[in-house]
Each structure stands twice: as C-alpha cells, then as structure tokens.
Design a protein that fits this description.
Shape: globular
Number of helices: 2
CATH class: Mainly Beta
CATH architecture: Beta Barrel
Structural class: mainly beta
CATH topology: Barwin-like endoglucanases
Order of helices and strands: EEEHEEEEHEEE
Radius of gyration: 14 Å
C-alpha cells in the first residue's frame, strides 16, 4: 500500500510580497526549491503562521538567489509581507519504506537564507 509523506519542506520562509493582479500561486526562489527538493509547478501546501491560513497551490520558480517568496493572484489574500510560512510538498511511498524515510527540510532566517538542513539533508551550517 502507498502512503503520503512530506518529502520536501521549506520552514520559516518569510513572505516578501503579495500581488493580487499577478499570475497565481506562490513564487519561490529556485535555489530554495532545489534545496528542499520541490519542483517548479509542483503542487504544494502552504501554512501561514501569522494568520493560521492553509492553502493548496503550486510553486512558481522565482529568480535564483533573490530569496523571494511571493503570494500571487487570489492566494495573495492569504498573507502579508513578513508573514512566516511553511511550504510542503508530498509524495507517495510504500509503507515498508516509510519507517526509514526522511524528507528534505530547510529552515530559513528572516532574510530567507538557509540556516539549517534537517531530515535527509541534516547538517548545521556554520554561523557567519
């Protein structure tokens, strides 16, 4: 039997902008997408710690290195710049593989820089 697991997560992402009149969904820096193992245009679940909103959308690839996280289209009403988000991608695996499975997880600081890797990426980054 297949079960659904969180396979990629961006934790404590700061929302940099919200644009209602823009092509929909959540724009994410492609460097951050790659680190978390989330594909451009992949379906994602977004949780907003500031207001408790959760929405299902897809990841729009943003400029690499720009550290942008931007809600677009109708989704823009689900947050405000500065809000802290958790962005998750899911996949299906066999039950027998779930016991040892670890997702790719990155934790960001207030500037959307990676400060920690967890799960299958586990290793702390040196402080600057």
């Amino acid at each position: 039997m297949l079960i659904s697991v969180c396979r990629g997560k961006i934790h404590k992402a700061r929302l940099t902008d919200c644009k209602l009149d823009y092509e929909g969904s959540l724009l994410i820096d492609t460097d951050l997408l790659a680190e978390a193992g989330i594909f451009p245009y992949e379906k994602i679940l977004v949780s907003n710690a500031a207001n408790g909103e959760r929405l299902e959308t897809y990841a729009i690839p943003g400029k690499a290195g720009g550290r942008q996280i931007m809600l677009n289209g109708p989704a823009a009403k689900k947050g405000s710049p500065g809000d802290v988000l958790t962005i998750m991608a899911f996949g299906q695996i066999e039950e027998k593989d779930a016991i040892d499975f670890k997702p790719k997880v990155i934790v960001l600081d207030e500037k959307n820089e990676i400060i920690e890797r967890k799960g299958s990426l586990a290793r702390k980054l040196p402080t600057r």
